[in-house]
Specification:
heterodimer, A: 285 residues, alpha/beta, Rossmann fold, five-stranded parallel β-sheet, two-stranded antiparallel ribbon, 7 strands, B: 319 residues, 2 domains, seven-stranded mixed β-sheet, five-stranded mixed β-sheet, 13 helices, 41% helix, globular, Transketolase-like_Pyr-bd (chain B)
Chain lengths: 285, 319
């Protein structure tokens, strides 16, 4: 897809994010907005995904023969739900049910409600990289040469399980795995360097044996280019880690650059101000 | 009292290893993971015959559970293995979110459960794992009683679709169940039909219950002994049919009385058919170092304790 077309999708996804969070007055807009370009780049350009003969998106849990994406930092569910709906997994209108009673769009993603496109529950942090490794190793056993992608937060790097997984993947040469860390420098209690300093994540992952590359996560051209680079680097005996520099709240000026909008919903006025900055490109739900 | 004899003693974990060897040969989707305890889990044969289907995780149980969940996406049937303490309590949230809530076809298969782990002491002797696992929605909990039953259970859980906790142990114990048994998940096994008291036993306590039954028979008491190898889902029908006949019951398990098999039975009794119930289990205590036999005696997990509780249950019934 052309970069300009991907940017149009991203604008609509950002509208979906702030509208979902506003409608239930809860959820996590900041990280969702920051990771929008990556998820759009993955689902609308990079990933090979299954469709039926009529072009309709189909979902099966095993995902054999298609690329898989796992969201480890499950709190940014609004961007995940929007991208899944906009790429055809379930009706866009269902976004209106986000975080409401009897919805399939739970606060954090789950397979429990059988929402198409979701393969694991996430929300309790630090587990997605392990799950992604397992899915990647299953692909190898199945002689399936498609890729597994996994997104984590930078605050999430505080979790010990992440480092168990970081040690395992290079040891077992899980080279069909591309992981991303959303480096927005923010977590709930403040800047990551003040809450728990991750210091040099690139040096850490390199020392563990990963191939580390970087991405400007809010520059769609760079997102597309680095995703292509990551695929080219796969299959060389090393897992790939993409340090993705983003701005929390990207696309909505007053939500950017602060941890304040990690888990806060906009009021009516703020919603209007946010939507005024985000052109409606594919039609609101 | 039906007569049970044994010609050899074997550890239940070797039953697991034997079951895994069969699965390695018969089910290409079965894979195994282990957190640096291959020898203890008796996985050598499976690994030797299927090296590409084994994943060494190192001493990293949380990661192991997550990888197991991921392997199911792709159709694998992973057995995540370690000691029961590290495979349940240490990784409760990983099992809760990535396995149970995500409804993944992961088998958490753990050895060295309970006091009979022995000399390593309380840090390793988990007595809370049945309770932890049975509380998780959708989790099946199985605690077989000897080598043959553990082997059969291992093969059976691979055929069952859904998360399972399979619990077994370290010491050698009598092998008294048939080698060719068919293991039915959720179906209690009638060890001995009786009329005076129901003894519901699981795991290593089943053999002790049989010994207790013989002692009670000498006293003229006809004990019904039922092996509850599947704690969840509990065979409610078998429990009720038995207590309606005997009018009192004893539960016996190598586990805390809080939250174990006995509590599952008590729920059934208070809701459907109240009879006196006496518990044989560890009473709100940690274990300690010692030989398995010494510990089972000190903490009251043996035939003598079962006899004592059976007599008490009968006394309460007749009061």
């Amino acid at each position: 897809m052309e970069i300009s077309e991907l940017q149009k999708v991203a604008s609509q996804v950002r509208r979906d994010i702030v509208r979902q969070v506003h409608a239930c007055q809860s959820g996590h807009p900041g990280g969702s907005l920051g990771c929008t370009d990556l998820l759009v780049g993955l689902y609308f350009d990079q990933m090979t995904l299954k469709s039926d003969e009529s072009g309709k998106r189909v979902f099966d849990m095993n995902g054999t023969g298609e690329d898989l994406f796992f969201l480890s930092n499950g709190h940014i569910s609004p961007v995940f739900y929007s991208v899944l709906a906009r790429s055809g997994y379930f009706p866009v209108a269902e976004l209106a049910t986000f975080r409401k009673l009897n919805s399939r769009l739970q606060g954090h993603p789950t397979t429990h409600e059988h929402l198409e496109g979701i393969r694991i529950a996430s929300g309790s942090l630090g587990q997605g990289l392990s799950v992604s490794i397992g899915a990647a190793q299953a692909k190898k056993l199945n002689n399936d040469n498609s890729l597994v992608f996994c997104l984590m937060g930078d605050g999430e790097q505080n979790e010990g399980q992440v480092w168990e997984a970081a040690m395992y993947a290079p040891h077992h040469k899980v080279d069909n795995l591309v992981a991303f860390i959303d480096l927005n420098g923010q977590q709930i209690d403040g800047p990551t360097e003040k809450v728990m300093n991750n210091r040099d994540l690139g040096a850490k992952y390199e020392a563990f044996g990963w191939k580390v590359i970087t991405m400007q996560g809010n520059d769609m051209a760079d997102v597309v280019s680095v995703l292509n680079q990551a695929r080219e680097l796969s299959g060389n005996g090393q897992p790939i880690m993409v340090l993705m520099y983003t701005e929390m709240g990207a696309g909505v000026d007053f939500m950017m650059g602060s941890h304040k909008w990690h888990g806060v919903a906009p009021n009516d006025e703020q919603l209007a101000a946010a939507l005024a900055q985000l052109p409606e490109t594919l039609g609101d739900y | 009292m039906k007569k049970y004899t044994f010609t050899e003693k074997k550890d239940t974990r070797s039953g697991f290893g034997a079951g895994m060897q069969v699965l390695g040969q018969t089910n290409p989707n079965v894979v195994a993971l282990c957190a640096d305890l291959i020898g203890s889990l008796k996985l050598d044969a499976f690994i030797k015959e299927n090296p590409e289907r084994f994943f060494q995780t190192g001493i990293a149980e949380a990661n192991m559970v997550g990888i197991a969940a991921g392997l199911t996406i792709g159709g694998k049937i992973p057995f995540a293995t370690t000691f029961a303490n590290f495979g349940t309590g240490r990784v409760y949230d990983q099992i809760r979110q990535s396995v149970a809530y995500s409804n993944k076809n992961v088998k958490i298969a753990c050895s060295h459960a309970g006091l009979t782990l022995g000399e390593d002491g309380a840090t390793h002797q988990i007595l809370e794992d049945i309770g932890l696992m049975k509380m998780l929605p959708g989790m099946t909990v199985i605690n077989p009683c000897d080598f043959n039953q553990t082997k059969a259970a291992t093969i059976a859980v691979a055929e069952y679709e859904g998360p399972v906790y399979l619990r077994f142990g370290r010491p050698v114990v009598p092998v008294f169940t048939p080698a060719d048994q068919k293991f039915e998940i959720g179906k209690a096994w009638m060890v001995n039909e009786g009329t005076d008291v129901s003894i519901f036993a699981t795991g290593h306590l089943v053999w002790e219950a049989i010994q207790a039954g013989e002692i009670l028979a000498e006293k003229g008491i006809n004990a019904e002994i039922i092996n509850i190898h599947t704690i969840k889902p509990l065979d409610v029908e078998a429990v009720l049919a038995s207590v309606k006949k005997t009018g009192c019951a004893v539960s016996a398990e190598e586990h805390q009385v809080n939250g174990g098999l006995g509590d599952s039975i008590a729920q059934v009794l208070v809701q459907h058919h109240y009879v006196p119930l006496e518990y044989v289990g560890v009473n709100d205590s940690f274990g300690e170092s010692g030989t398995p036999a010494q510990l089972m005696e000190k903490y009251g997990l043996n035939a003598a304790s079962i006899v004592e509780k059976a007599l008490k249950a009968i006394e309460r019934k007749n009061a």
